Amino acid sequence: VGGGEKTCSNNLTITQRLILARTQLLQASHIVVATLSGAGSRALLEMAIEKSVGFDGVIVDEAGFCTEMSCLIPLRFNPIRAVLIGDPKQLRAPTLSHHARRANYAQSMMERLQLSGYPTVILEDQFRMHPQICQWVSSQFYDGKLRRAASLKTRDFAFQADPAFRPYLVHNLRYGREKSSGMGSYSNEAEAVFVCDLLTRFYKTTGTSACSQDGHLSVGIITPYKGQTRLVIEQLRRRHLNTHDIEVSTVDSFQGREKDVIICTCVRARGGGASERR
């Protein structure tokens, strides 16, 4: 028995048949969904360059979260129209290199076009936030243009009657101090302890009546630093609060998701901390 790849009846190897089938499938498709890096795959490029098959339009979702270089990849298909959908007010693309950040590498193409005066369409109605939270976000980041959708029904909970659990509230811990936890991350023990105190009070206040539509109130604890996530999780375990309804994560990991209750621990509040977007 000789080595090598098996061939089929038409003398094509299995790999060649797979490539041929993939190419035929792509050529017959009206819509192709891919990541930005996936748009630079060999199969798509061969179809576009060698066989002169392109796309009439390219839509880039989360365009505010990708670098300009990444956004250029699908534009190699020479589309008639390109549509960028995203929010430049939210997180930029993660950029680890300090030199790259100083050179503004994290800036998205969408942000560059907006700053250059290119006309954009703003979606002003939001369907997720409580009106009080929406009002603050709108005034601080969107020049007051963001508004609550008329069809949005506000869910009110009994625990919101507690002054500590208003829809939007800031707790100023003047005694808290951040410290480096290694690898460029930071933690703040005073904030971690306060978060657990707040959660303990929350569960005492709500008791068994704290229910959302699926029967539980989901809680998210977010922070700009991984060091703080580790510290908060440690404190939760000490208090036996590590239930399935609590999720601790960084701002970057949590983007685009939602919980009934969000607690944000900023860690650093004396300048030089996380970016305004985070």
UniProtKB/TrEMBL annotation:
<dbReference type="Pfam" id="PF13087">
    <property type="entry name" value="AAA_12"/>
</dbReference>
<dbReference type="GO" id="GO:0001147">
    <property type="term" value="F:transcription termination site sequence-specific DNA binding"/>
</dbReference>
<dbReference type="GO" id="GO:0016604">
    <property type="term" value="C:nuclear body"/>
</dbReference>
<feature type="domain" description="DNA2/NAM7 helicase-like C-terminal">
    <location>
        <begin position="105"/>
        <end position="270"/>
    </location>
</feature>
<dbReference type="InterPro" id="IPR027417">
    <property type="entry name" value="P-loop_NTPase"/>
</dbReference>
<protein>
    <recommendedName>
        <fullName>RNA helicase</fullName>
    </recommendedName>
</protein>
<dbReference type="InterPro" id="IPR041679">
    <property type="entry name" value="DNA2/NAM7-like_C"/>
</dbReference>
<dbReference type="GO" id="GO:0006369">
    <property type="term" value="P:termination of RNA polymerase II transcription"/>
</dbReference>
<dbReference type="InterPro" id="IPR047187">
    <property type="entry name" value="SF1_C_Upf1"/>
</dbReference>
<dbReference type="InterPro" id="IPR041677">
    <property type="entry name" value="DNA2/NAM7_AAA_11"/>
</dbReference>
<dbReference type="InterPro" id="IPR045055">
    <property type="entry name" value="DNA2/NAM7-like"/>
</dbReference>
<dbReference type="Pfam" id="PF13086">
    <property type="entry name" value="AAA_11"/>
</dbReference>
<feature type="domain" description="DNA2/NAM7 helicase helicase">
    <location>
        <begin position="21"/>
        <end position="97"/>
    </location>
</feature>
<dbReference type="GO" id="GO:0004386">
    <property type="term" value="F:helicase activity"/>
</dbReference>
